[in-house]
Design goal:
Length: about 280
C-alpha cells in the first residue's frame, strides 16, 4: 500500500494524489503538538532516591500538585505529615490516608489540623512542634497550599478578616516558617533540609509598590499575582535568614529554600482559574 502511494507522488506530483495534502498537514500539526508537549513538559528526573527516615511536612497535600507530591514521597518511604484544614478524625481524611497507606505500602502518613486561613491555628500547631526537646526531626517543608479568587467570584476573608489570597498564599507561609525556624536551624548538619515554595508565572503581574497598610492590602485585579510575588520575596529573605544563623557546632547552614513552578497541570485550581470560578 505505501509503495504505490509513494510511486504516485513521485510520478504524478503531491497535489494530484487524493487526500495527500490534507493528510500531510494533519500529520504535521500532530507532530508539532507532540513536540510542544515534550518541550513544555520540562526536564525529566530519573533519580529514584529513597526517602526512608526523612520527615516531610506538606501543606495542600490532599489535592492537586500537593497530593501527587505527597504520594510520590510516600512511595519512596518518607514519613509524610499532611497539614490539613480538616481534623484527623474527619471521614474523608481517614479514607484518604488509609488509601494512600495502602497504595504506597507506607504506614508513616499522618495528618495534623492546621487551618491556613487562621493565624491562631497555625500558631497552635507550630509552637507545639517546636516545643520539644530534643528538636523533632524535620527534613523538608513543602508549601503547596494556596487559593485563588476568580475575577467574578465572591471576595472571601480569613478568620482575621484578611483578604484570602494575602492571608493564605503569603501570611500563612510567613507565619508558619517564622515559628518553625528554630526547628529547621536545629537539625543536625548531616541532614539536607529543604523548604520548597510552589509558585507560578502569575507573579509577573504582581505589584508590591501598591500594597496598602490595611486588611485588604493587595491591588485590585492583581491579588493572586501580588501574593505570589510577595511569597517569592519572602523565600529569598528566609534563605538569608537561615544563612545568617551561626550554628553552635560551627557547621555550615544545611537548609536550602527552593522555588518550584510546576507549570500548567490538571488540578482543581487550574480548572477554577480557566473557568473563572464557574467550575470549582
Amino acid at each position: 500500500m505505501p509503495i504505490p502511494i509513494l510511486g504516485d507522488i513521485i510520478s504524478k506530483g503531491l497535489y494530484n494524489v487524493p487526500y495527500a495534502v490534507p493528510t500531510l498537514k494533519t500529520v504535521a500539526c500532530l507532530l508539532a503538538i507532540y513536540l510542544l508537549k515534550l518541550y513544555f513538559g520540562g526536564a525529566s528526573n530519573n533519580s529514584e532516591r529513597l526517602m526512608r527516615s526523612k520527615v516531610v511536612m506538606i501543606t495542600g497535600g490532599t489535592s492537586g500538585v500537593g497530593a501527587s507530591v505527597a504520594h510520590e514521597l510516600a512511595l519512596r518511604g518518607a514519613s509524610v505529615i499532611l497539614l490539613t484544614r480538616l481534623p484527623p478524625s474527619d471521614p474523608f481524611l481517614v479514607d484518604y490516608i488509609d488509601d494512600m497507606r495502602a497504595t504506597t505500602k507506607n504506614q508513616l502518613i499522618y495528618a495534623e489540623q492546621v487551618d491556613l486561613s487562621s493565624l491562631h491555628s497555625i500558631r497552635l500547631f507550630a509552637t507545639k512542634w517546636v516545643d520539644n526537646a530534643p528538636p523533632r526531626r524535620l527534613d523538608m517543608v513543602i508549601l503547596c497550599a494556596d487559593t485563588f479568587t476568580p475575577r467574578f467570584g465572591e471576595k472571601l476573608v480569613t478568620d482575621e478578616k484578611l483578604e484570602v489570597c494575602w492571608g493564605i498564599n503569603y501570611l500563612a507561609n510567613f507565619h508558619l516558617l517564622s515559628i518553625l525556624s528554630p526547628a529547621l536551624r536545629a537539625q543536625t548538619p548531616d541532614r539536607d533540609v529543604r523548604i520548597v515554595f510552589t509558585t507560578c508565572p502569575s507573579y509577573i503581574g504582581g505589584d508590591l509598590k501598591k500594597l496598602k497598610d490595611t486588611r485588604t492590602p493587595l491591588p485590585p485585579g492583581r491579588e493572586y499575582g501580588t501574593s505570589k510575588l510577595a511569597t517569592m520575596v519572602f523565600a529569598q529573605a528566609f534563605q538569608k535568614h537561615l544563612d545568617n544563623y551561626k550554628r553552635p557546632d560551627n557547621q555550615p547552614n544545611n537548609a536550602r529554600v527552593i522555588l518550584v513552578d510546576p507549570g500548567y497541570s490538571r488540578t482543581p485550581g487550574m480548572r477554577r482559574w480557566l473557568t473563572m470560578g464557574s467550575l470549582w
